[in-house]
Amino acid sequence: MATYNLSTRGRIADINQGIRVDRATANLPQTGEYDLFTVAGGNVLVLGILGEVTTVIETQANNTNLEFSPDAATLADNDLCAVLNITADVVGTLYTIDGTAANALVDSGTNGWVVYTLASPLFLVPGAIELHCAASNSGQVKWSVWYIPLDEGAYIVAA
Q1: Nearest residue to 136 (alpha-carbon basis) of 41, 67, 40, 34
Q2: How many CB atoms neighbour CB 94 within 10 A?
């Protein structure tokens, strides 16, 4: 199970902002997807997700989005946002979503270097939050997610 700071300050942050889970920087998936985070043990409410480019993204078209793949075989995979071309994004560029699946992945470089938390938090069942790339680009991104467990024993871990 995920661990986090149990100090008074940490518990207050968890109540106000959710529990934060960080995933180390990693190469982009190559013309496919990989799991960023795993939801396990029950249902969670995702309050925010943030990616930060740590190695410049290669200059070639790469439509990228976040998806959710539930563990239950009877449930279909879902896009968490529409695609955004992340070609040539520089170190420090931030990515997030606004909670509306029809809206594109938000890129701070084209959004005035402003990103925001989810306007509509995501209710997720056990499964995986995935990063999907349409091309094979070099570049690296680190990710963080903030969530609140809704069921006893529910948690998110970096995949």
Answers
A1: 34
A2: 18
Domains and CATH numbers, the chain: 8-158 (2.60.120)
Written as one string, the DSSP assignment of 41-106 is SS-EEEEEEEEEEEEPPPSS--EEEEEEEESSTTS--EESSB-EE-TTPPTT-EEE--S-TTSBPE
pLDDT in tens, the chain (159 residues): 444 444 444 555 555 679 999 999 999 999 999 999 999 999 999 999 999 999 999 999 999 999 999 999 888 999 999 999 999 999 999 999 989 999 999 888 765 556 667 888 999 999 999 999 999 999 999 999 999 999 999 999 999
Nearest to 156 by CA among 136, 126, 135: 126
Determine contact, residues 51/93, Cβ cutoff 8 Å.
no
**Strand, helix or coil at 117?**
coil
Single pTM value for the model: 0.87
φ, ψ of residue 109 in degrees (nearest 5): -65, -35
